[in-house]
Design goal:
By secondary structure, this protein is mainly α. It contains six helices and two strands. The chain has a single domain, classed as Up-down Bundle (Four Helix Bundle (Hemerythrin (Met), subunit A)). Strands 1-2 form a two-stranded antiparallel sheet. The mean pLDDT is about 95.
Length: about 190
C-alpha cells in the first residue's frame, strides 16, 4: 500500500487490539459513552466502511456509531478482519487520484493523500483511545500525529458535533500528538 500514514495507523490499531484482554472489554474509554469493546467495534466498522467506499469490501453488519456491547470473537480477530479489508481496498487506490470516495457524507470525495490520512486518523485515534483505557503505551507519536494533521484539518470540522467533540484549548509547549488530541476534543492526559 502506498500510504505510509495509513499503514502505520492500521498497524497501531492492530497492535493495541492484540493487547486487549477479555476482562478489559467493558473498561471506560476517552469516548465517554463507549467501552473498550465498543470503541474497537466502531474502529473496525469504520475501516470496513472506508474499504467498501474506496475499492472493495462489505459495509459492517452493524452501525459503527451505535456499536454492540461485545464483538463476536476476540478483539484481535475483529480488528484483524477490518485491517485486512482496509489494506486490500487501499492497495487499489491510485496515490495520484484527486477524487477518492469517502464514507463521510459532508466530504464525499478527497484527494488520495487526504483520504488516506482521514482513514488513518480514525484508526490511530481509536488505537490511542483503547491504549490509554487498557494501560498500553500510546501508539500516537508526534511523528504520526503530524502526518495525520492534514487529514484531520480536512474532515474534522464538517463532522464536529457528530463524530468529534468540541476542541479543547491548546496548551503551550505540547507536541503534535497532544495538540491533535485536543483538536479532536480529547484530553491527552485522560486516564482510566
Amino acid at each position: 500500500m502506498g500510504f505510509e500514514v495509513l499503514t502505520t495507523s492500521l498497524t497501531a490499531l492492530q497492535q493495541v487490539a492484540d493487547g486487549v484482554t477479555d476482562d478489559q472489554l467493558d473498561a471506560s474509554t476517552p469516548c465517554a459513552e463507549w467501552t473498550v469493546a465498543q470503541v474497537l467495534l466502531h474502529a473496525a466498522g469504520d475501516q470496513h466502511a472506508w474499504a467498501s467506499y474506496v475499492g472493495s469490501g462489505a459495509l459492517p453488519t452493524y452501525n459503527p456509531f451505535d456499536p454492540p456491547a461485545r464483538p463476536e470473537g476476540t478483539a484481535s480477530e475483529l480488528v484483524s478482519a477490518a485491517v485486512s479489508a482496509a489494506t486490500a481496498a487501499w492497495e487499489s487506490v491510485d496515490p495520484a487520484s484527486e477524487a477518492v470516495p469517502t464514507p463521510l457524507p459532508p466530504v464525499p470525495t478527497l484527494r488520495a493523500d487526504l483520504a488516506a490520512a482521514a482513514c488513518a486518523l480514525d484508526a490511530a485515534v481509536h488505537a490511542w483511545d483503547v491504549a490509554v483505557a487498557t494501560g498500553q503505551p500510546s501508539p500516537l507519536t508526534d511523528e504520526l500525529a503530524a502526518a495525520l494533521e492534514p487529514g484531520a484539518r480536512t474532515v474534522v470540522e464538517p463532522l464536529r458535533g457528530f463524530a468529534y467533540a468540541a476542541p479543547l484549548a491548546p496548551e503551550a509547549g505540547e507536541g503534535p500528538a497532544a495538540a491533535l488530541l485536543r483538536y479532536l476534543g480529547r484530553d491527552p492526559e485522560w486516564a482510566a
